[in-house]
Amino acid sequence: MSWDPYAALGLGRTANADDIRRAYRKLAKELHPDVRPGDKQAEERFKRATAAFNMLSEPATKTRFDRGEIDADGNERAAFGSRAHTHTRHGARASAGAGPGAGGGPGGAEFDLGDIFSDLFGSGTGARGYSRMRGRDVRFSLDIDFLDAVNGAKRRVSLSEGRTLDVNIPPGVESGQVLRLKGQGGPGVQGGPAGDALVELTVRPHAFFRREGQDIHMDLNVSLTEVAEGARVQAPTPSGPVSLSIPAGSNSGKLLRLKGKGVGGAGDQIVRLVVMLPEPADEDLRKFVKKWPKRDYVPPRPAG
User: Is the pLDDT confidence value at 91 over 80?
Assistant: First the structure.
């Protein structure tokens, strides 16, 4: 656990709704930046206490935290399927963090930070903007196909609280990249701005494409006739099939470059030829090789 919201409020795990409210009121009165202006340490403690109050004043998140399903930041714990919780058909998993504007307290009590600040400092509280608080960021992961990562796409996902969210995936994203969607997180308090949605992407591997920087690599099976005589064949690319010219006399392992067919059109596609002989073994080919004048040719091999 990175931090404990109960400890941040000076409470034990058996604290009820009234305990949570009283503890937060006490800390807010001591630590509010209007009371201790310029005290960065007090301001950080105040922010942490507010985050703890947000977590514990929302019944759903308090219950899930108490069960060990989420951490103090609202992120899914690995033991409870942090990479697999609340899957949607597009592979999204939303974390369960509640915004600081959560209205329902434990046991059904209504908690309002604006009311608390007004009670402590009067209705004019907020000269420093703390009665108008920004909402919590919502974090979730999204699995996307390889081709969506290369070409870009738009996906609609469902969050744990029932909202849907449209995610625009720009071309060229990679696994681990986080997209920030402004204003799509938890609601603000007392008219404060909403938090953001932070989307961590995981790119699923492709059956035959692989990415190296901005280039796309793939192996292409070709016949002995195609490399011996030369040919034009269809080769798949992330943007669709294209015609590829194979020079006569090409060997297995030869690399051919398709300009502009890489990631988002910025890189290239590198095609590696793989010569495939017929299966099962062809008797006519064996007879030909026996009579072939260069049958004793030995290609270069590593020494050692």
Answer: no
